[in-house]
Amino acid sequence: MITVEHLSKRYGDVLAVDDLSFTIEDGHIYGFLGPNGAGKSTTLNIITGCLAATSGDIKIDGHDIYEEEKEAKKLIGYLPEIPPLYVEQTPREYLKFVAEAKGIAKAELESEINRVIQETHIEEMQNRLIKHLSKGYRQRVGIAQALLGNPSVIILDEPTVGLDPMQIIEIRDLISELGKKHTVILSSHILSEIQAICEKVLIIYKGKLVVYDDITNLGKSLSSENEIEIMTEATEEKVSEVINHIDAISSFQQTENFEKYHCYKLSTAMENPYEVCELVFRAFVANSIPLVKLNPVQTSLEDIFIELTSSEQDSELGEMDSDYEEYEEEEEE
Ligand code: ADP
Ligand code: MG
């Protein structure tokens, strides 16, 4: 278990982390989500003992990260944003180097290295120079070094940045696998990534914690209004006439056209949007108007993030992109 109390970090005039307090329980995959510059890396560098805080307390299983550094650090495996790989070494040589630095006993060295090589599926690459590996494999080597010593918590700082879509899927699968044996903290500025892998989410913005919840609760707790999307040939006037009789619908609005069809969004304060879908269906049938689409609109994490930070939106929000916009064509060396 990790407890963070009143953590702040100042770089000159910049308050990168602003009075953060939270607890990480054992056995879950946590998403640490926020736009670029939110303070994710700074926080993770402090939790892992790589950077000094300006103020605040961090305890790993009761061990203070400064006062009992050795005990605390043993419990954490960390893959920083920019992993310190030595590209002239092979993964096997590099892992041996890290294992020794971590103080793993000589007798266990070989079996421990074999274990992490197996867990990260880099068997076939273990004797190739790291500089000849793809970015996806390099990231696996980075994760392998974090796993050495079998720490209970694995912290990964934006592990999928710069990977192509296929590599992203493979690394995500690997992280999900790790989640079965370790507590995992995964930082990301990609909303769908957190939604795909994590059970719990911490959203950080301008150094402050703005949300801490189960990923499944997020939509429910924030959205007071549900929306239902319909597609029909009916004009706005006709739709208004039909739904006028449904009390559960508070308002509606035309969104787009698709061939001869029009799309509308209906808002409802009712908790269960499926019940409202049923009412809508019956109303259209009663008027003999076909609906070609009728479904509740799921609130995405993106909508939630915008809702949460709308009072202080700035250009940083533009940096929260989807995976595909994120993907940059990078040359394999
Ligand atoms: P994130 O990982 O969420 O993108 P960071 O923790 O890297 O955010 O940065 C948080 C803020 O602190 C940013 O405004 C960044 O410019 C600033 N910052 C980070 N590292 C340094 C540093 N070494 N010196 C000065 N400012 C820094
Ligand atoms: Mg970062």
Automatic annotation (TrEMBL):
<keyword id="KW-0547">Nucleotide-binding</keyword>
<feature type="domain" description="ABC transporter">
    <location>
        <begin position="2"/>
        <end position="231"/>
    </location>
</feature>
<keyword id="KW-0813">Transport</keyword>
<dbReference type="InterPro" id="IPR003439">
    <property type="entry name" value="ABC_transporter-like_ATP-bd"/>
</dbReference>
<dbReference type="Pfam" id="PF00005">
    <property type="entry name" value="ABC_tran"/>
</dbReference>
<feature type="region of interest" description="Disordered">
    <location>
        <begin position="310"/>
        <end position="333"/>
    </location>
</feature>
<keyword id="KW-0067">ATP-binding</keyword>
<dbReference type="GO" id="GO:0016887">
    <property type="term" value="F:ATP hydrolysis activity"/>
</dbReference>
<dbReference type="GO" id="GO:0005524">
    <property type="term" value="F:ATP binding"/>
</dbReference>
<dbReference type="InterPro" id="IPR027417">
    <property type="entry name" value="P-loop_NTPase"/>
</dbReference>
<protein>
    <submittedName>
        <fullName>ABC-2 type transport system ATP-binding protein</fullName>
    </submittedName>
</protein>
<feature type="compositionally biased region" description="Acidic residues">
    <location>
        <begin position="313"/>
        <end position="333"/>
    </location>
</feature>
<comment type="similarity">
    <text>Belongs to the ABC transporter superfamily.</text>
</comment>
<dbReference type="InterPro" id="IPR003593">
    <property type="entry name" value="AAA+_ATPase"/>
</dbReference>
